[in-house]
Amino acid sequence: MLAGALLASALVLLAAPTGAHAAVTAPDTPGGDQEATEFYFGGLITFDGEAVPDVGMKVSGNGFEAETVTDAEGKWRLYVPEKEEYRITVDESTLPDGVIVDPEQLPAGVTAVQGTSGAFDVGFGATGTKIVNLFLGEGERVTTSFLDQFMERFVNGLNFGLLLALAAVGVSLIFGTTGLTNFAHAEMLTFGAIIALIFGVNFALPMWLVIPIVILFGAALGWSLDAGLWKPLRRRGIGLVQLMIVSIGLSLALRYVYQFFIGGSTYQLPGAGAGRDIRLGPIAVSWIDLLSMGTSIVLLLAVAFWLLRTRIGKATRAISDNPGLAAASGINVDRVIRIVWILAAALAAVAGVLWAYFRPGVKWDMGVQVLLLVFAAVTLGGLGTAFGALIGSIIVGILVEMSTLLGIPPDMKYVGALAVLIIILLVRPQGLLGRKERLG
Residue 138: which residues within 8 A CB-CB, separation 6 or more? Predict the structure, then answer.
């Protein structure tokens, strides 16, 4: 188990979404330290008519982050993947002493962020480029307190953890009842987001109606996969390793089928990128964030009720504990496994929609970007335990969002969660809520 966790940790670091790495020195040309795209922000930083070199610049938003440094002529460029609104932040610790970005000389279309000097919200115009020339002036720097940042990132981490939990609970239930590590779970997330894109954008249905449709389509996908693939393989007595390899092949096949039909672009769901104009004390959230957390909580409570209070739920727990004894006691194991697949796929589909809003964007490979974090959450909480998957997901989500507050670069923000995973498995190999098993 520990070796698997270490391997998963390495794979997450390799598969984690990346922006541009922070430059130690200025690139030879503006933007030369980044992967070029067709959309970018650029400009010049000056003070008293003179260019200011080696100023740290950062762009963030829509699930993307990148950093750069102004060159010897004070020029900078930050490439972004989509033509959306982003936040540009000037690292004022790299500015000359006693000066800040003058908020009274901001270009048109650039809005200063209240409470934080050097941070600005910027959008594109008719073209794919936006020039933002910034002028420095004397002034006092305004920063957000550590406590305020802590609270805001805690809420972001909770939101992320809850949507991870929707996927992780399904992975845990499937593993508990079948022993299968399902790599195709990533494509179940993507499937839900694509269904939401079809009905929310192409058919222009409201999202309150789209979510039930996504659940129905997700459940149908789970039923189809078990009836057409997994049940026949189980009846043939195929081993768990072979089944895992089949799930990897299924994941790749579905992923490229998605790419064939929707292409390689990123598509936005209705309301994506909504501004965080709702303030709860020091915490700024958007209505999308509140709906996302509310949806996750309601569904997770429903799953908990199903597991604890219904006959099928109790049968699911019995099969997870001892499949042979459950079958001997009269439980229809195949029927329960079929229901677990339907439930897991439906939860994954909703998680895909919420992940599309959190990133934001629907893309053909969006599921695989979060799959290994889901596996880490399941392993952390305890393999095969739904409630352990919930706790592990919340821990992973919060640690991921908190890591940058502790000085970890954005490109390495998954390291903190994975380090905790490894430490806990060294101390408690069965995970937080897992049970020790005797080998041999």
Answer: 98, 99, 100
Residues 6+ apart with CB under 8 A from 414: 12, 13, 16, 373, 400, 403
Cα–Cα separations (whole angstroms), residue 130 to 40, 49, 76, 250 = 7, 21, 12, 42
* Maximum Cα–Cα distance across the chain: 84
Cα(326)–Cα(324) distance, rounded to whole angstroms? 5
List the structure tokens of 401. 């969002």
Q: How far apart are CA 400 and CA 405, in angstroms?
A: 10
164: amino acid identity, one letter? L
pTM above 0.85, yes or no: no
Closest to 370 (Cα-Cα) out of 381, 388, 357: 357
Which tokens belong to 41? 């922000």
Q: What is the pLDDT of residues 249-300, one digit of tens each?
A: 999 999 999 999 999 888 889 888 666 678 787 787 888 899 999 999 999 9
**H or E element, residue 336:** helix 333-358
